[in-house]
Amino acid sequence: MSTRMELASTVVEDAVSPGPSAGLAGSAGSSAIFEIQDLNVYYRDFHAVTDTSLNIYQNEITALIGPSGCGKSTVLRCLNRMNDLIDGARVEGRVTYHGIDLYGSSVDPVEVRRRVGMVFQKPNPFPKSIYENIVFGPRVAGWKGNFDDLVEETLVRAALWDEVKDKLENSAFDLSGGQQQRLCIARAIATSPDVVLMDEPCSALDPIATYRIETLMRELKKQYTIVVVTHNMQQAARVSDRTAFFSVDVGEEGQRTGRLVEYDMTDRVFTAPSMKETEDYITGRFG
């Protein structure tokens, strides 16, 4: 059986055995979507992330927080092999998705990215109509369903339908920044992914647009697993179920390497962290 078929059957059957994750087990009824063990990431000779192990659980929002340069986005990109697109990037350790080694030689990175969608820091709609932004991915994937129904269903899920239903043929660039970001989320879920990764999705948005995105995230976790990188600790506290705090080690020659300090349920990280370094960061003593 091909890896593509193994991925498909594993998702349908949800045959996952939770593994070790910094001493954490999944909440009631949850399963480990990703198991990350001893992850090290290099960009040529630069050691970006060291010895990171954690699990990501189904239908939860996991927040990755920490100061700039601590490797949050690097770890996020490992979950859908986006680092493959960076010249000189090298991933060591093990990252499994539904028990399948994401970096196995027979795994198709394109299939991985279809199942693990991504929303970037700055809204990046295609230079196409709102309608064409939604149908682009399914069309490329050879989907044969009703595109009109798909567009409506997807935009409803992204809490954007009522705002754009009468202007689907308008350019996506006509939308506000917050609307563009929700369109990008809609585009990401149009291909029916299992997981949605978000890399600082609200950093360029105003408070009202940020509130709408956070509300949308809480709604979407009923159907998807979400992993979000954020510099906004209040946002992490508001929306996430679990939080991973990363910090930076600075070598003798000034090289910076990110490492995982603490990973726990969000309420514990923010009210009773087990590591002083975590407490110092969330209370503003550094970072």
Description:
This protein is an alpha/beta fold and 287 residues long. The chain has a single domain (3-119, 195-282), classed as Rossmann fold (3-Layer(aba) Sandwich), CATH 3.40.50. It has eleven helices and ten strands. The chain has helices at residues 3-13, 72-78, 109-115, 130-140, 147-157, 161-164, 177-189, 207-220, 233-239, 266-271, 276-282, and strands at residues 32-43, 46-57, 61-65, 89-97, 100-101, 116-119, 195-199, 225-229, 242-250, 256-265. The protein has a ten-stranded mixed beta sheet, with helices on both faces. Helix 4 (130-140) runs parallel beside helix 7 and helix 7 packs parallel to helix 8 (207-220). The longest helix has 14 residues, at 207-220. The chain is globular.
What's the Cα radius of gyration? 19 Å
Determine the mean pLDDT: 89
Shape: globular
Class by helix and strand content?
Answer: alpha/beta
Q: Return the string of H and E elements.
A: HEEEHEEHEHHHHEHEHEEHH
Q: How far apart are the termini?
A: 48 Å
Helix content: 25-40%
Largest sheet: 10 strands, mixed
Number of helices: 11
CATH superfamily: P-loop containing nucleotide triphosphate hydrolases
Widest sheet, order of strands? 5-4-1-2-10-9-3-8-7-6
CATH architecture: 3-Layer(aba) Sandwich
The CATH class: Alpha Beta
Summarize the SSE layout with pairings.
Elements: H1 3-13, E1 32-43, E2 46-57, E3 61-65, H2 72-78, E4 89-97, E5 100-101, H3 109-115, E6 116-119, H4 130-140, H5 147-157, H6 161-164, H7 177-189, E7 195-199, H8 207-220, E8 225-229, H9 233-239, E9 242-250, E10 256-265, H10 266-271, H11 276-282
Parallel strand pairs: 2-10, 3-8, 3-9, 6-7, 7-8
Antiparallel strand pairs: 1-2, 1-4, 4-5, 9-10
Helix pairs in contact: 4-7, 7-8
